[in-house]
Amino acid sequence: MDLVERYLKALAAQLPKDSRDDIVAELRDEIMDRLEALEARLSRAPSDDEVEALLREVGHPLTVAARYRSGPQALIGPELYPWWMFGVKVGLSVMACVTLVGLAVRVLVGDVYVGQAIGQGIASLFSGAVTIIGLLTVAGFVLERQEKKPDFIAKWRVKDLGLFELGGDFDADQWGQRLARGDWSSPKAKPGADVRKSAEMSPVARAVASAIGWTVVLMWWTGLLQVAPIRPEELAGVVDGVDYGRILADMVSAAYWPVALFAACRVGFDLMRAASGGNVRVTALGDLAFGIAAAWGLLWVWFWSALSPLIWVGTVTEFVERVRVLIGRSGEDVGGVATILMVVVVWAFAAEAVRVVRAAARLVVGR
Amino acid sequence: MSENNEALLFESLRLELRRGSLILAVLASLRREQYGYSLRVALGEVGVEMEESTLYPLLRRLESQGLLDSEWREEERRKKRFYRLSPRGEAMLERLATEWRGLSASLEKML
């Protein structure tokens, strides 16, 4: 009988307090009845092994106790699981891009060699992936336990589906199964290009994708996500006689809060846009504001930041001349990195300017 | 190998098919008052095997939904919890039985 009592004690520990005694008493009675029936069948007292086998049939205390709970029995249920999986795919893709950009900057700055960069990239990809999957799982766990599932699950629109064609190439379930089977050969190529071409995103889907992307960027910038972090004190690259590490450190410390604020506003705006259904004028107004902010940031880089003395050009002629020198330069020429940065900044500024103009036009026209 | 697979597949499909009928079997058996063990034995005799970890939580849930009444009573020197269909449970059982017969009749025509 000792075995039964120990079993029931372990079970009781897993049950909610208010119904514990009741459930245990009922199961004790059930087990006693079964033991008596077993004894009658054997015409002797059952051995400890036989009692244990009977208790195993009743079930492990954790399993039995879980059946009495009213909430969901899964971390993330079958209804939510595909959404969770999709979130993981998007999050990991964005993180991979951010990591690559971060590493490219560091290699360019001369902080790390390519070999080192690959090693650090893999290490930070791993910790970043664990963070993203962990956060999404917590979010899924909470959503799974809500009375009402969020609207985007039930009230979806066909025009939003373009977003979901994007993830089609990477079939994580298939990969998971292959890994489990120990099958390392690559899966058959899928017709991805046609799918991608048809991926026209609706405003809402774009807003959601943008919000996820900017969240990852924000987390990266603030160091919540340990992906190729910019750690100014460790940067000491010197290229062409210019200490880019020092410059990058100055710029990061000067721009830390503005960039964090920009990303946070962007996430908030995207979420608001997704919730409100993507009104054209509201979107245009937001694009206008964010475009101006980004353009101003680039102007800052261009005119006033620590990088400015290197990339500053006063006239178009001067700009063209520097680009010409870059293209035509031989190995020993200096100033290559500065020119590339100059081109990137000018290009990005022009792109933001175009975006601002287009947003203004949409704001006026309302289409 | 493939015979074994067929057997496993059949078993899982069979379980899925029967799962929906368990509640009906439990409600119907409880027209007469029973306690957990006697109910399991009675269900087992008509071919509806149920594990304790399925039956007891189900009884509790049906009671909280007002379809069953229960009381603790002493019998054979032990306290036992007796369950019985409540008036609401009887009405619900009638509706579910009608549903079952209709479904069964139309499926029978298909098969």
What's this entry about, in short?
By secondary structure, chain A is mainly alpha-helical. Chain A is built from 16 helices and two strands. Chain A has three domains: 67 residues, no CATH class; 183 residues, no CATH class; 89 residues, no CATH class.
Q: What is the strand and helix layout of this fold?
A:
The complex is a heterodimer of chains A (367) and B (111).
Chain A: H1 2-14, H2 17-42, H3 48-58, H4 61-68, H5 81-109, H6 114-144, H7 151-154, H8 162-166, H9 172-181, H10 193-197, H11 203-222, E1 238-239, E2 242-243, H12 244-276, H13 280-303, H14 308-311, H15 316-328, H16 336-365
Antiparallel strand pairs in A: 1-2
Chain B: H1 2-19, H2 22-29, E1 34-35, H3 36-45, H4 52-64, E2 68-75, E3 78-85, H5 87-110
Antiparallel strand pairs in B: 1-3, 2-3
- Report the mean per-residue pLDDT of chain A as an integer: 75
Q: In total, how many beta strands of chain B?
A: 3
Mean pLDDT of chain B: 91
Order of helices and strands of chain A: HHHHHHHHHHHEEHHHHH
Largest sheet of chain A: 2 strands, antiparallel
The greatest inter-chain interface is formed by: A-B, 18 and 17 residues
Distance between the termini of chain A: 78 Å
Following the backbone from N to C, one meets helices and strands of chain B in this order, namely: HHEHHEEH
How many structural domains of chain B?
A: 1
Would you kindly provide a written description of the structure presented here, covering whatever features stand out?
- The complex is a heterodimer of chains A (367) and B (111).
- Chain A is mainly α.
- Chain A has three domains: 2-68, no CATH class; 74-256, no CATH class; 279-367, no CATH class.
- Chain A has 16 helices and two strands.
- Chain A is elongated and about 105 Å long.
- Chain A starts with a helix and ends with a helix.
- Chain B is of the alpha+beta class.
- Chain B has one domain (21-110): Orthogonal Bundle (Arc Repressor Mutant, subunit A), CATH 1.10.10.10.
- Chain B has five helices and three strands, in the order H-H-E-H-H-E-E-H.
- Chain B has helices at residues 2-19, 22-29, 36-45, 52-64, 87-110, and strands at residues 34-35, 68-75, 78-85.
- The model of chain B has no long low-confidence stretch (mean pLDDT 91).
- Chain A binds chain B through residues 19, 23, 25-27, 29-30, 32-34, 57-59, 63-64, 67-68, 70, and chain B through 35-37, 40, 51-54, 56-57, 60-61, 72, 78-81.
